[in-house]
Amino acid sequence: MEKTKTDRMHRIAGRLEGTSFLLLIFIAMPLKYMADWPWGVKVVGWAHGILFIAYLYISWMQYDKQRISLKALALCFFAALLPFGPFVLEKKLEKSNQ
To answer: Which pTM value belongs to this model?
Structure first.
């Protein structure tokens, strides 16, 4: 199956969303509670929220264009809720498309 622009956008959005989630959990939140620096959570939290919505929207576009199944769409949603989830799902979807 040939890669489309939407496939590339989905992969990039997943990586960005996953990275922002990890930054939020492992850097910004410890800085907030251990160094009393809440600004990081505010900035990274906003970025993560926007990237989360973008990832879900692009996942929906993939489903709508029949590039992924309803099951894969549901997996995208649940993967976005877990640390490292989008990275693991990307590998799984890549293997299934080959």
So the answer is: 0.89
